[in-house]
Amino acid sequence: MKESKLVKGVITTVAVLAFSAPAFASADAGFKGRAEKVSYSDLNVDKENGAEILYRRLQQASKRVCGVESIRTVRGARIEAEQRSCYHESLNQAVAEVGSETLNAIHEG
User: Which domain does 39 fall in, by range?
Assistant: First the structure.
């Protein structure tokens, strides 16, 4: 009986940790090594409203790690294309890491 309660407690703890783990927006290509932790422990990502808020957070983090915020500069078309590619790859990876069907549906639009 005590063992059963302990197992349930451990399973509950693991489930809570799994759902409150942060997602990471990280950059590849010419922006390697950059990552940003995005917390969503305050959101229920299985509900549309929570997933939409997290999606906006992930979009903003992906923009920051890939330098997309300053995309309209004189750096040239190649850099702009790299930044856009980095942004999309970073966002795709972060959404996949969360593993929420609701978030995936928003992402796939």
Answer: 22-108
The CA-to-CA distance between both ends of the chain, in Å, stands at: 47
Residues 6 or more apart whose Cβ sits within 8 Å of residue 59: 91
Q: How many domains does the chain have?
A: 1
Residue 87, in any domain of the structure = yes
Report the alpha-carbon distance of residue 48 to residue 55 in Å, rounded.
10
Helix axes 77-98, 101-108, angle to 10 degrees: 150
Q: How confident is the model at residue 7 (pLDDT cuts 50, 70, 90)?
A: very low
% of residues, the chain, pLDDT over 70: 63
Q: 24: closest CA among 71, 69, 61?
A: 61
Q: How far apart are CA 71 and CA 15, in angstroms?
A: 39
